[in-house]
Design a protein that fits this description.
heterodimer, A: 531 residues, mainly alpha, three-stranded antiparallel sheet, B: alpha+beta, four-stranded antiparallel sheet, elongated
């Protein structure tokens, strides 16, 4: 600079003084706001990062609330299940008050003294278990899967007086009925109904052919009893067979008779020889006269023993006709599994089958139902679908604990249903009477299944407990995460007081110094020395 | 030796006194104007004066000497190079300062650093709109956790707040933009006033110069005006000599634009603004007012014309109202003098016509305002890039407004799409049909409206879907034997439909005459009832809707008065009318399990989608807002990230302009100080001048005394010997 003029010096001074003042103001603002930056412009990278951290913190906070809420829901579930556990099978408590204890008591009560009381207790405890499984947390039912607003379990009394358990309007024992299938995988049909898979079929060709029998008005085969025999065997009359009277035989022999008394000895002898070819029965039937022995050709009669040996194991209709179906192209009869088995035991209507399939499908769906929550595991979607591993499945499916469907024997797997079945069996034995072996065996069999279901319940209980632990850990993790994030953005945003106060003091010092300079910047000039 | 005038010495001394007196006066003037802005230090020009010419017969022994000092003029001390430097940097200061000022105005709205409360903590700084975007997420999570009506309402309230924030921010930005637009108009007037002043000053200076006056004070004033003009635009200042006749030449000032356009082929950036006593003016190009509702795909009609007249009615070009060009294209008028007369060489200046400036011809605060008002950054179109190759990296108000609009539109689109769809079965296939009561169907999100106050006058109690009456399970809904009686039909229109499709004698008396209106209405209701549309049984009877069954509805619209989802922007985004009155709610799921046999009241898969969308990285495509935009990707990230990016971009721009302003301003101060070093008044200097001229004055006076004494000796005391 060639010349430093008054105006130039003042301009420079003003410029620098303003800078000093701006600087002091800036530091003062930093101190007052306690923030390292108050706009994006001051530190764009840090500001953007701080916002992201704050966003994460807010998200974590929401996740924490949800996780904590879910944790408490799981804790409530744990408490409920613990109560259920005590009622199902308690290793440490009073065994006799548990379902398991009671069923064992019943098994070991051969005289049946307390069977009725135990049956009632069994019923009450199982009802109590259902009530436990209908517990609510807040406004939602805990074990209702994704249907928290509706009661999950409902016991419905059927027309026959039995009780059935429903889970979300679906019978818990629903299972797809197994059907008898031909080799080409087509169902075996009987009058439009499906034949169950376990139905035993007997080829018609393997069954001795028996001529149709004469039947009475009720459709029962007409039987006759052989006389002159100690065994007095019973025979059924083949259709069309009419039998003969003694007079008929005399007539056939060409004797003049007309009765045996009218015959010669030789004729009598010949008549007796002829009679020996027939079976004499004491019964009569129209149009033959009553009170006369009827002689039947043995070929026209079927011994009841023979008949029963051939047909008793096969299903017959109300007319006594065998049910026949076509199986792999063969005509087959349906074998009876037990004496009192009926056709309804081996068939299922298409409508019932469809309903059962639909119910089974519903149960399968409900079992796999998810209720995903964002508890800080990522919660991301791929192709419009949530990535399962990025969320927590908070659905507590009641039937998952309680069991559902049927086993390979067709017995229910659900604890309540098993208990009901056991109850029915127990009730079938008259009070005070001893178990018959078959019933006892069946009961014992179910007790074994009950133990399996109970074991499954404990397994699921333990699994859920693991989920609770996971939530608990996650709650702690989120809490820690929350504070970490807060710490991180605080590190970015919050001032270091010592540094900022030092800066402010320095800025004030600089500004004060600048003011002092201003006081003397134009204080002297040559003018002041002119005289 | 030549003759010596007796009283020459007096003249010499007197000239010395005069010169010193002038010197003192100029010094006094300098000191007086010490604080006068724009004052240029003056000094006297004095020369040694000699009288007489050369004698024809001059003796070689003759001695000529000067006759004293002559003050020839008073001049300014100024360095033209520093003026050029100063004015160049001044335009930069003007440019960056205006940009920064504009950016700060945007910052006031969009920069949320340190603003807003923090959730659950005592500190601040979660942002406002930023936090509200997350609040929606929080509310959705709450709804997900407990899907009841109260939480649905909370989500809606949260969405309403978000919409209001969008509206407020957009409103503030628009207000700031309008203020800037107003400021631009005012500054345009200021620039034109400056140009007029300079032209008039040129005239005055020219006249003064012709009369021999340097008109220094007028020049100072003119320099101030030129300095002021240089802040508005980059200019080139030239001084040439103009022959005013009789051999007299005076200085002529020419100001032209300073060749700011980087395109070397463009020469409009050298347009002359001032040529001596002639000056031009700036104006915004006027264009016909376009009709925003004009549809080029439709034929011309009185309502579909390209332009609007003064009354905002569609019109042809000839009748269109003229408005400022939305691109703020500038024009420079012809140069005229103060009497509005064109220069004689009119055709040689600016090609003799008004000049339409190219987009980058200006540089300075004027250009900064133009850019702030027009630059769209990544939303720039091909036309914008053609006008300015850097258009995609310049971000003014439109950029931030459009970014906010795009964010609002994206947000609305995402959630509107998520909240609309068709019902699916448990396996995710489209539901073929659904049967249920009105209440049950509505619980799935099927929108059935009550036909209250309909045009047809059917009265209340009927339910309609998509404007068609809903039937019961007896008949297909919306069928009515294909008559398709709409809620908008009048009774006569409905009857006409039935006559056309079903029964030509419907609504007629047995004799074929028209039935009375009352009978027609009764017949119509009977007909509807026969076809399952009954106002009395809708609560109990089940309706079977055929697939696809659309459910849900838009959550956001371009105004609360309807459900129109077209052209949603930050300024008009609103919770849709249907959502606000409860006709539409947040659809928690689209699946209906096993035809409704199995309920899943707390299943919220759709809310899962909604929550995950908050975090999902979405592409923000400028073409979604302006199909002509060149860029297809402004940003990819979540809603919050997008807003954060706007802040970061804004912060980056502010930072750049702050740095540039500091640099340019520092340069300007430096150059101005240097200019002051040449032209400024310094007290020490002037004190020296005082002493110098005072001593000269004293010396001249002393000289006069000496001559007086000498002449006194000669006149009064010479030749007295012997007397």
């Amino acid at each position: 600079m060639i010349r430093a003029t008054t105006g130039g010096v003042l301009r420079n001074y003003r410029y620098n003084l303003m800078n000093s003042y701006i600087n002091q103001n800036k530091v003062m603002n930093t101190l007052l706001t306690q923030r390292n930056f108050n706009s994006y412009a001051e530190d764009p990278a840090s500001a953007a990062k701080a916002f992201r951290l704050r966003k994460s913190r807010m998200t974590v906070q929401s996740q924490y609330n949800i996780c904590s809420d879910t944790y408490h829901k799981f804790q409530s579930a744990f408490n409920s299940l613990e109560s259920v556990s005590l009622m199902v099978d308690n290793d440490t408590g009073t065994a006799s008050k548990t379902l398991k204890g009671m069923t064992l008591d019943m098994l070991n009560d051969p005289t049946g003294d307390a069977r009725t009381q135990l049956t009632e207790a069994l019923d009450q405890v199982s009802e109590a278990i259902v009530q436990c499984m209908n517990q609510k947390y807040g406004d939602n039912f805990i074990f209702a899967g994704a249907d928290g607003h509706n009661v999950p379990f409902e016991v419905r009394e059927m027309e026959d007086g039995t009780k059935k358990l429903y889970y979300r309007n679906v019978p818990v024992d629903a299972a797809e009925p197994k059907l008898k299938k031909n080799n080409d995988n087509t169902e075996v049909l009987l009058n439009g109904d499906y034949l169950r898979a376990d139905t035993t079929l007997v080829k018609a060709s393997d069954v001795p052919e028996i001529t149709p029998l004469e039947k009475d008005a009720d459709g029962d085969p007409i039987s006759v009893v052989a006389v002159d025999e100690e065994a007095r065997n019973v025979y059924y009359i083949k259709q069309g067979a009419t039998g003969k009277t003694e007079e008929d035989l005399i007539q056939e022999l060409g004797f003049t008779g007309p009765t045996a008394a009218d015959l010669t000895d030789a004729e009598k002898e010949a008549l007796e020889a002829e009679k020996a070819k027939y079976i004499r029965t004491s019964e009569f039937r129209n149009p033959l006269e009553d009170n006369k022995s009827i002689y039947y050709d043995p070929n026209d009669l079927v011994s009841k023993d023979t008949y029963d040996a051939t047909y008793d194991g096969l299903m017959k209709d109300e007319n006594g006709d065998l049910y026949s179906v076509t199986f792999n192209g063969d005509t087959c009869y349906i074998a009876k599994d037990s004496a009192d088995a009926t056709i309804s035991d081996v068939t299922i209507s298409q409508a019932d089958y469809d309903t059962a399939c639909s119910d089974a499908k519903k149960l399968e769906y409900l079992m796999d139902e998810k209720l995903y929550l964002d508890i800080g595991l990522g919660f991301q979607e791929k192709d419009g679908e949530l990535i399962a591993s990025s969320a927590f499945d908070a659905a507590l499916i009641g039937i998952n604990f309680f069991g559902y469907g049927v086993d390979k024997d067709g017995d229910p797997k659900n604890i309540y249903s098993l208990v009901q079945k056991m109850k029915e069996i127990a009730q079938s034995v008259p009070d005070g009477e001893d178990w018959d072996k078959a019933t006892w065996d069946e009961f014992d069999h179910l007790v074994g299944k009950f133990e399996t279901a109970s074991s499954e319940f404990h397994t699921q209980f333990t699994n859920m407990d693991a989920g609770t632990t996971k939530l608990e850990t996650n709650v702690d993790l989120l809490k820690e995460n929350y504070y970490n994030l807060q710490e991180q953005y605080a590190e970015l945003e919050d001032i270091e007081p010592v540094e900022v106060i030092n800066n402010l003091l320095w800025a004030q010092y600089a500004y004060n110094a600048a003011l002092k300079v201003g006081n003397s910047v134009l204080s002297q000039s040559l003018m002041d020395y002119l005289s | 030796m030549g003759s010596i005038g007796t009283f020459d010495g007096f003249t010499t001394a007197r000239l010395g006194i005069y010169a010193a007196q002038h010197g003192l006066n100029v010094t006094g003037n300098n000191i007086s104007n010490l604080n006068t802005i724009g004052y240029t230090r003056q000094r006297i020009d004095q020369v040694s004066w000699k009288t007489g010419g050369n004698d024809m017969y001059r003796s070689p022994y003759d001695v000529h000497m000067g006759s004293g000092a002559m003050v020839t003029s008073v001049n300014q001390i100024r360095d033209p190079y520093l003026d050029i430097q100063y004015r160049t940097v001044s335009s930069k200061v003007g440019y960056t300062d205006t940009w920064l000022s504009g950016i700060k105005n945007i910052t006031q709205t969009l920069d949320e650093v340190g603003k807003g409360d923090a959730s659950n903590t005592n500190d601040k700084g979660d942002g406002i709109l930023y936090a509200q975007l997350l609040e929606i997420q929080r509310m959705l999570m709450q709804l997900h956790n407990n899907p009841d009506k109260a939480n649905d309402t909370l989500v809606r309230k949260s969405a309403e707040t978000l919409c209001q924030l969008f509206n407020t921010y957009a409103g503030k930005l628009e207000t700031e933009r309008k203020d800037l637009d107003k400021q631009f108009t005012e500054e345009l007037s200021s620039v034109n006033e400056i140009l007029t002043s300079i032209r008039d000053l040129n005239d005055s200076i020219r006249k003064a110069e012709i009369c021999g006056d340097n008109a220094l004070e007028l020049r100072d004033e003119r320099n101030l005006k030129i300095d002021a003009l240089s802040q508005y635009m980059h200019i080139k200042v030239e001084y040439t000599m103009e022959d005013v006749g009789a051999g007299k030449q005076v200085e002529k000032l020419t100001i032209s634009l300073g060749n700011a356009n980087p395109d070397a082929d463009v020469h409009t950036d050298e347009t002359v603004l001032i040529d001596g006593i002639y000056g031009a003016q700036f104006r915004i190009k006027q264009v016909p007012k376009e009709n925003p509702n004009y549809d080029p795909n439709q034929p011309f009609s009185p309502t579909n014309l390209m332009y609007l007249d003064e009354n905002d009615q569609p019109c042809k070009l000839a009748d269109a109202a003229m408005v400022n060009d939305p691109h703020y294209t500038m024009e420079v008028t012809n140069l005229v003098d103060s009497k509005n007369v064109l220069p004689k060489n009119h055709n040689e200046i600016n090609a003799g016509r008004p000049i339409t400036l190219a987009d980058n011809d200006l540089y300075g605060s004027f250009q900064a305002m133009r850019e702030l008002l027009t630059e769209k950054g990544e939303f720039a179109t091909q036309a914008d890039v053609d006008a300015d190759p850097n258009a995609t990296i310049k971000r003014g108000f439109p950029y931030y407004q459009m970014s906010l609009d795009l964010l609002a539109r994206q947000f609305a689109q995402v959630y509107n799409e998520l909240n609309q769809g068709v019902l699916l079965d448990e396996e995710g296939n489209e539901l073929q049909s659904l049967t249920g009561t009105i209440e049950e169907l509505e619980s799935y999100g099927v929108k059935l409206n009550q036909a209250e106050g309909t045009a047809g006058g059917f009265g209340d109690g009927y339910y309609v879907k998509d404007g068609i009456f809903v039937g019961t399970s007896v008949h297909d809904p919306c069928d009515l034997n294909k008559a398709q009686i709409s809620v908008d039909d009048t009774v006569d229109e409905a009857i006409a439909k039935i006559r056309d499709k079903v029964d030509p004698n419907f609504g007629k008396n047995p004799d074929g005459s028209e039935a009375s209106d009352a009978d027609k209405l009764a017949s119509l209701k009977d007909f509807m009832s026969q076809h399952g549309v009954n106002s009395n049984n809708v609560d109990t009877e089940k309706i079977t809707l055929p697939g696809p069954i659309e459910v849900g509805g838009p959550l956001f619209s371009n105004g609360n008065y309807g459900d129109d989802v077209e052209n949603i922007t930050a300024s008009n985004i609103s919770v849709s009318h249907s959502w606000s009155i409860g006709d539409v709610k947040v659809i928690p799921k689209f699946k209906v399990l096993f035809d409704g046999d199995v309920e899943d009241t707390t299943q919220n898969t759709n809310i899962d989608h909604m929550i995950s969308k908050i975090e999902e990285a979405l592409v923000y495509n400028p073409q979604d807002l302006d199909p002509d935009a060149l860029s297809t990707k402004l940003f990819k990230g979540s809603f919050n990230d997008m807003f954060n990016d706007m802040g970061t971009t804004l912060g980056g721009d502010e930072r750049i302009h702050t740095t540039n302003l500091n640099t340019h301003y520092s340069q300007a101060v430096d150059i101005d100080t240097r200019r002051d070093g040449v032209s400024g008044v310094d007290l020490n200097d002037e004190a020296m001048n005082i002493m110098m001229y005072q001593k000269a004055y004293s010396a001249a006076c002393r000289m006069m005394t000496a001559i007086d004494e000498a002449l006194d000796r000669l006149i009064n005391n010479t030749g007295l010997a012997g007397l």
